[in-house]
TrEMBL record:
Pfam family, one: Sugar_tr
Membrane-protein topology: Multi-pass membrane protein
All copies of domain Major facilitator superfamily (MFS) profile, residue ranges: 21-488
Transmembrane annotation, as ranges: 21-42, 62-81, 93-112, 124-145, 157-181, 201-220, 284-304, 331-351, 363-380, 392-412, 424-447, 459-480
GO biological process per UniProt: arbuscular mycorrhizal association; cellular response to nutrient levels; phosphate ion transport
Keywords, comma-separated and alphabetical: Membrane, Phosphate transport, Symport, Transmembrane, Transmembrane helix, Transport
Descriptive protein name: Putative inorganic phosphate transporter 1-9
Location in or out of the cell: Membrane
Length: 498
């Protein structure tokens, strides 16, 4: 028999607190996407400031390192904070993860000194720490939202938290455009050959502004009560869970207090034991494998970026330093508004109507179709393409990723596993995803830059790369079809006992 306080959570009507929780929990995802999508125009600024001898272009190895080092930190953060979230509590770790993100974002902007080598080492160090904070936020935010939500709209609430990534992408572009426009105007419209000293301040300011929204929610985070499911099921304190939820649910204690509290029921098996794998091994495999596969594809968007920029962004030699970064940010904003953000909100609307499994299968399927449509005829048509078709297909990869596995892989691990293992398992799945992200972001970035120079490896040209991504999407669809369980419309306790 379910505890009254948990039954009350499952059947609770949507309240103001749910929307407040979405904002609080979503700030970590906001910071994640802000950092990911502001780094491309920032690399353009860094190239102009520090790489005069390289034609004012940041070398691909430096770009790969800056992207990869944050992802490595994210892997570490997901594993560490996921484990601590089950051992110490979601609430206690939640504020710490946010504080790490805020301080490291500010640190990225300062980056200690002005010489190139010192700046890059310092920036890499702070980006690693930023990745740790972002990684820690993933399992905590998803789990906290899942444990506060009712079972009817739980998917929509968690998807709304994840959709804050879309707002972060748009904010990164808007801030970059605003900062560059202000600096360009203040400098008297510098020529395309000039790189004023103030440009070294511009990229730092862009990075530090990303910490402001997250910092504003810090007080709310530390004031959040521990989730009732952790307090009741892990700490075995049913009365305290009822006291905490009385404030959140706006119900009387008499409705959620147990007349005869059940005796403590300590865990019957440890994490990663034979019994755990017998009961939850399939779920852990399906969630980790799906997340790994989708992140290979999602983060490989770097494979297209050079082609997109060549077609739709003026060449860096034709504009000044601020206009160069402005144009890149503007293109990112257009893509976000037209495809990325709609994908997130389609998931919010349909996740509790269609179900997680169907949306994940559908997303993988259409991603495979789009990648094959771009890849197979690439050298015959798309390589010299001057129409808008390539841009439409590029946008569809983001739309069906977000209205598909990029969102559902964040949701499902927060719903399938027992309360005492929930953040740990979500962290393991998320870490697997970020390993895929490293492969996608760095491996395919390497492939695309080799292609640009005309000397792409014989074994992996653009066509082969795109077809491989289509094949990865098909594999993700297979994993979803045969291994992933549906969690829609069921309580978390029902999901964990199957």
């Amino acid at each position: 028999m379910a505890l009254k306080v948990l039954s009350a959570l499952d059947s609770a009507k949507t309240q103001v607190y749910h929307f407040k929780a979405i904002i609080i929990a979503g700030m970590g995802l906001f910071t994640d996407s802000y950092d990911l999508f502001c780094i491309t125009p920032i690399m353009r600024l860094l190239g102009r400031v520090y790489y005069k001898e390289s034609g004012y272009q940041t070398p691909p190895a430096v770009v790969s390192t800056m992207v990869g080092i944050a992802l490595v930190g994210t892997v570490f953060g997901q594993l560490l904070f996921g484990w601590l979230g089950d051992r110490i509590g979601r609430r206690k770790m939640y504020g710490l993860a946010l504080m790490i993100m805020v301080l490291s974002s500010v640190g990225c902007g300062f980056s200690i000194c002005t010489t190139r080598s010192c700046v890059l080492v310092s920036l890499g160090l702070f980006r690693f720490v930023l990745g740790v904070g972002i990684g820690g936020d993933y399992p905590l935010s998803a789990t906290i939202m899942s444990e506060f939500a009712n079972k009817k709209t739980r998917g929509s609430f968690i998807a709304a938290v994840f959709s804050m990534q879309g707002i972060g992408i748009l904010a990164a572009s808007a801030v970059t455009m605003a900062v560059c426009a202000v600096f360009d105007g203040a400098s008297g419209n510098v020529s395309k050959e000039q790189t004023p000293k103030e440009a070294d301040i511009a990229w730092r300011l862009i990075l530090m502004i990303g910490a402001v929204p997250a910092g504003l929610t810090f007080y709310w985070r530390i004031m959040m009560p521990e989730t009732a499911r952790y307090t009741a099921l892990v700490e075995q304190n049913v009365l305290q869970a009822a006291i905490d939820m009385e404030k959140v649910l706006e119900v009387s204690m008499s409705q959620i207090t147990e007349e005869n509290p059940p005796p403590p029921n300590p865990p019957s098996y440890p994490l990663l034991s034979k019994k755990f794998f017998r009961r939850h091994g399939r779920d852990l495999f399906s969630c980790a494998a799906s997340w790994f596969l989708v992140d290979i594809v999602f983060y490989s968007s770097n494979l297209f970026q050079s082609q997109i920029y060549k077609k739709y962004v003026p060449d860096g030699d034709e504009v000044n330093v601020y206009q160069d970064a402005f144009n890149v940010a503007k293109l990112q904003a257009i893509i976000a508004i037209c495809s990325t953000i709609p994908g997130y909100w389609f998931s919010v609307y349909y996740i509790d109507r269609i179900g997680r499994v169907k949306i994940q299968e559908m997303g993988f399927f259409f991603m495979a179709v789009v990648y094959m449509a771009i890849g197979i005829p690439y050298y015959m048509y798309w390589n010299d393409n001057t129409n808008k078709g390539f841009m439409v297909l590029y946008g569809l990869t983001f739309f069906f990723s977000n209205f598909g596995p990029n969102t559902t892989t964040y949701i499902v691990p927060a719903e399938l596993f027992p309360a005492r293992f929930r953040t740990t398992c979500h962290g393991i799945c998320g870490a697997a995803g970020k390993v895929g992200a490293i492969i996608g972001a760095i491996g395919f970035l390497w492939a695309s830059h080799n292609h640009e120079g005309g000397g792409y490896p014989k074994a992996i040209g653009m066509t082969a790369s795109l077809v491989i991504l289509g094949g990865v999407s098909i594999l993700g669809m297979v994993v979803t079809k045969f291994f992933t369980r549906e969690t829609m419309g069921r309580s978390l306790e029902e999901n964990e006992i199957d």
